[in-house]
Amino acid sequence: MLTLPPICLPPPSPSPYPYPPFSCLAYTPYSILYTLLPMSSRRLLIAYFVLVLIAMTWVSWYACTAPSISSLPEYAGKGLNVIGGYVTVCSEPWGLATMFDAYFGFLAFWLYVAWREQTVASRLGWFVALMLLGNFAIAAYALICLFKAKGETDLGKVFFTRKVA
Fold first, then answer.
1. What's the whole-model pTM score?
2. Mean pLDDT on 30-38
3. How much is the pLDDT for 85?
4. CA nearest to 79, candidates 92, 93, 94, 88
5. What is the pLDDT of residues 103-131, one digit of tens each?
6. Are residues 120 and 146 in the same domain?
7. Looking at the structure, do residues 31 and 87 belong to the same domain, yes or no?
8. Which of 43, 62, 95, 126 is deepest in the core (most CB within 10 A)?
9. Residue 137: inside a domain, yes or no?
């Protein structure tokens, strides 16, 4: 018989939702989730996603008001806008790598949203929001989930339960 090391105790029983492989690491006294984010710490998550919204608003405002690449002589008179800025960023190797990283992350989050949402309209709406707004949309989605499940203390039920039609 296989015995598990003490760091990999089985998840709590009875389980209201299925646990993926190795999820037992999240439910042991040695795990970060167990010590820092017990399932009742909704306020920490709300504070985090509000902080994301504030930080993204600030950095977006800063990017719009600070001197930018368009102030360089080689870009003078080109009147760069959002699309022009995107093309300029993607013309640099690290800019292109950053865009790939960001949009693959947005797409991965959308796959979670598509699993959770039940209607095609909702899935499409969140896809457009994620592709246009990125982390603004991610933070908004998480906050909507948290506020809709106001009395729920089990964050697993808040985030890992599919919506019903």
1. 0.66
2. 52
3. 73
4. 88
5. 999 999 999 999 999 999 999 999 999 99
6. yes
7. no
8. 126
9. yes
Rounded to whole angstroms, the Cα distance separating 37 from 144 reads 19
**Boundaries of domain holding 76:** 39-159
Is residue 165 situated within a structural domain? no
Output phi, psi for 143, to 5 deg: -65, -40
**pLDDT per position as a tens digit, 65-113:** 776 666 666 666 655 566 777 777 888 888 889 899 999 999 999 999 9
Rounded to 10 degrees, what is the CA torsion of 130, 133, 134, 139? Answer: -90
Q: How much is the mean pLDDT over the chain?
A: 77
Contact 72, 81 (CB under 8 A): no
Number of domains in the chain: 2
